[in-house]
Amino acid sequence: MRIVITGGFGFLGRQVADALLKRRTLCGAPLTRLVLADRFVPADAALTADPLVDVVQGDLTERLDEIFARPVDVLIHLASAVSAECEADFDLGMSANLDTTRALLDAARAQGAAGGPLPRLVFSSSVAVYGSDPALPLPPVVSEATLPTPLSSYGTQKRVCEQLVAEYTRRGFVDGRVARLMTVAVRPGKPNAAASGFLSGIIREPLAGLPATCPVSPDLRVALASPRRTVEGILRVAEAGRGSGPGELAGALPVNLPALTVTVAEMLGTLRRVAGDAVADRVTLTPDAAVEAIVGSWPAAFDNARATALGLLPDESFEAVVLAYIEDHPEAIASADLPAAGAFGP
Amino acid sequence: MRIVITGGFGFLGRQVADALLKRRTLCGAPLTRLVLADRFVPADAALTADPLVDVVQGDLTERLDEIFARPVDVLIHLASAVSAECEADFDLGMSANLDTTRALLDAARAQGAAGGPLPRLVFSSSVAVYGSDPALPLPPVVSEATLPTPLSSYGTQKRVCEQLVAEYTRRGFVDGRVARLMTVAVRPGKPNAAASGFLSGIIREPLAGLPATCPVSPDLRVALASPRRTVEGILRVAEAGRGSGPGELAGALPVNLPALTVTVAEMLGTLRRVAGDAVADRVTLTPDAAVEAIVGSWPAAFDNARATALGLLPDESFEAVVLAYIEDHPEAIASADLPAAGAFGP
Description:
2 copies of one chain form a homodimer.
Chain A: E1 2-6, H1 11-23, E2 25-26, E3 29-30, E4 33-38, E5 53-57, H2 64-67, E6 74-77, H3 83-88, H4 90-113, E7 120-126, H5 153-170, E8 175-181, E9 183-184, H6 198-207, E10 212-214, E11 221-225, H7 227-239, E12 255-256, E13 260-263, H8 264-275, H9 277-280, E14 283-285, H10 289-296, H11 305-309, H12 318-328
Parallel strand pairs in A: 1-4, 1-6, 4-5, 6-7, 7-8, 8-12, 9-11, 10-14
Antiparallel strand pairs in A: 2-3, 11-13
Helix pairs in contact in A: 1-7, 4-5, 6-8, 8-12
C-alpha cells in the first residue's frame, strides 16, 4: 500500500506519518511506501530516515506527476493555506486550497481512468465551514445535517472542496472521505496568528514557563480535540468501509471529528489542578472583543453520532488532553515548576 | 443602467429580457443598455430589434472583455449547461458551470477593483441542489436552512457556485444574490431530455393536439413554478435592497423561489377541467421507474418564508398556470379542441 500525505511535514502531517510508520499497515494491507509531499521539508526531519519514506518537495500542483508516477492507494490531503492567509490574500487561498484540491482530484481520477486502482482520498476539512450567518444562526448543537454557512474565505474553500470530493466520489472517480477537524489543542510549538491560537497558548506557554494572555471571557464554551484524537480520527475515516453497516461510511457526507466541549474557565482550572498555582498564574485575562467575536461564532457543541458510529470518541476530559500534551512534549515543559512533574514522564 | 443577461437567448433569458424591455427600469434606474450574451443567437430574434439591446455572441469566457468593456451595473447569470449534459460529460459541466461562473465573478470583481461600480450579480441556481442522500434524507418541508446534498453533477456545480457568490459578496467583490429556480412548468417549445420534461409535456402536448405519456404515479407530489412567476422572482431578487428590513436581503443566503405543490393527478385533472376530455385523454399513463425515482427524490414542499418576505408568492393554482400558458402561447394551442378556446385569447 502506497500512501501519500500532502502537507506531510506540517504539524498534523508529521503526526499522521508517525502513526502510520508505527502501525506499518492501513485498511488491513501492509504499508509499502509512505510519500510525504510538502513545500518545505525541514533539514532535520527524523521521518526521512525511515526506509519506507519518500519525500516530494515543492508546490503540489507541480509535483502531481511525481506523486502519481506509481499508483496511489491512499491520499491524505492535509496541505492547506491557513485561515489568516486566506483572509489576507483571497487569490492565494483560492489557488492553494480550491485549485490544488481540484487538481489532486483530477490526478486521482486520471489514475482510475487509466486502469489503475481507485484512489482512496481523505480530505481534511475544518470546523471553519460553520459560521453564524445573521440570516441563519447556528443551532445550539451542530451536526453534519447543519447547513454550513462559512464566514471566511478559508471556510468557503474547505466547504467547496468537501462538495467536490463528494461529487467525484458519487461519480466513481475516487473513493473520497471528508474529516472535519475541530480546533486542535494543545498544539505544540510556537504561537501562530490564528484567532484560536490562545486555546493552545494558555496551556502551552505557562507549562513552558512563559506568560500567556487569554483574550476571551472564561465562561466562553469551545469545542476542542487533542492532536492524538485528531490523528486517530483521520486514520479511522481513511480506513472506514463503504457499506451502510456500523463503522462504515455510506456516501460522502463529511464526518465531524469528535469534539470535547469545555469552558475556558474549565481549561484554566485544569491547568491549575494539574500544574499548580505558579504555572496557572502565568495566564492573564486580557479581553479582546475581536477575538471573542470570532471564536464565539464557532459551534461549541456537537452531536457526534456519525463519529461515534465509526468508533471515534472525544477526548475524555480536558485534563486528559493536558496530561497527553505533557507526556508527548517533555521538551516543552519547564518541569521544575510542576508539583509532580515526574509523574508525567514517558 | 447597463444590464447583462448571460444565456440571454435561452428560454428564461428571452423572457427576462422581454420583461426588462417592457419595464425599461430596474432598481429605480432607467435601463440604458441591455446586453444579451449567448453562444447561439437565433437569426429571427425579435429582441435584437430593440435599440437598447446589444448582442454578445460566443463562449462567455472568451467574451468577458466585451461584456465588461463598459461598466456592468447588473449581471443576470442564466447561462448554464443543463443537468443531462453535466451528467453525460463531467468536464463540460465543470467548465460551463463552475469555471465560467468563477470567471464572471472575477471579471465583476476586477471592475470594482478598478474603481468601477460594484456589479450586482444575480446567480440562477436550481432546486437540483437538493438531493435525497441516503445518509441524510430530505425533510418533508424544505427551506433555505435545509442542507443541500446534491446527487448530480449539475446540482453540485450550482451549489458550489452559490457558495462562491456568497463569498465574493462577503468580501465586497460583488453584490451577489442567488435565486434557486424551481421546476418550471409549463415550458413552451419542444420536449427536452430532462427527467422533469413530462411535467410540461403532459400539458403542452395535449393542448397542441399531440399525445403525451406520464411516466410517474398520479399521486406523486411535485413543486412547480410558472415561467411568469420565475421571471418575476429573478427580477425581484435582483431589485431587493441590502438591509435587514422586510423585502430586503441580508447576506447571500439563497432564495428558493416560491413553489406550488401539486400532485400529478391534480395537474391532469386541471387539464381535463380546462381543456375537456378529448384533450386530457391524449395523456397515457406509462410508468417509468427510473423517472419516478429521480423526480420522486426532489423536494415536493417548501417553506417559502424567505421568498414571501420579498413579496414573492407561488402560482395561485395549477389552473392559473395552465391558463397563463394558453394565454402566452396561442401559437401552441390546437384551439379547435378547446371547449371555450376563445376565452383564452389575448
